[in-house]
Model the fold of this input.
Amino acid sequence: MMKRERRPSWLPMMAAAATAAILSAQARAQTAIPVKIWAQELVDRTVAQHPDLRTITIYATPPKTNASLVLASNIGLIGTPANKADADVAASGKTRVVATANRRTAIELPLHDLAGLSVGTLALTWASPGAGGSTALEKKATAIRDDLSRHILNTANLLDPYPYVATATTRSRAQTLIDETFRRHPEVTVLALRLKVPPKNELVVVGSTFGRHGKPADGDDMKVLDAPAPIPGLYSNDRRFGVDLPVKDARGTAIGTMNVGYAYSGHEDRKALEAKAVALRDEVQARLAAIPAAEEIDP
Done:
C-alpha cells in the first residue's frame, strides 16, 4: 500500500496567509474601481427606455473650461471635442435635423437643466425616420430631452460621480419611493430624501431625482434636521423655489430631511408653494413609516 505523503504543517498557514493577502488586494481594488458620472447614468436609462434609439450623446462644457466635449454616450468617444455644428445647437437654442449615412436620422437639441437653462447639446439617432418622418422623430426627441432635463440640476451635476459615494445603494427602497412620488407630482422639479443610515447614523442622500446617492449632509442640511419650520429659498438663478423640511418617524423623532423644488418665475405665491411642499413631505413621511430599512436595496 502506497504511503500518503504528509503535507508540512506550515502549508495551511501559508495558504491562509495567501488567501488573506488576495482578499486584502481585492478590497483595495474595489475602492479604486471608477464610478460613472450622472450624465452617463441618464444616457443608460434613456437607452433602456427607448430600444429603438441607435445612438445618444450628451455634449457639454465642464465648469472652468471653454470646450464642449462628449460627456456621455452609448458609443464611447468620451472626452471627444464637439464639432462646431454640435456646439452651435447649444449656443443657438435651435434643433438640428441631420440625415446621416445608412438612412439614419440624427436630431440634435439644446439640452436644458430643470430650470430651463442651457447645459449643452443632446444628440439622438434613429435607424430611419419611420412612418411619421422627421417631424414625428423631432417630437419624440423633444420628449426625451424634456424628461432628461427634469433630472439635471446644472452642468456640474452632469459630472457628479454616480453613485456619489462608490459604496452607496442607488436602487434603494427610498429611491423607489422618490421615483413614484415624482411621477405622481409632475409639478415638482426637484425631490430629494436624506436619512440617517447605519453604521454611523450619518445623514446622507438615499433617494433623489438628480443622483448624488451617499453624499453626506453639509452644515445647511443638518440645520434642516432640527428646524421648527420649513426653510424656503430660491435657486438656479431664481428660477427654482425650493423648500427644505425635516422628516420624522411615528414618534416625532427627526430621522432625515427632504428637499422639494418647483419652477419659479417670480409671480408664483411662495406661501402656496411652501404649503404644497409640506403636504408632499407629509405624504412621503407617511409612506416612509411603512418601509423597513429604506436605505437598503429594493428587492
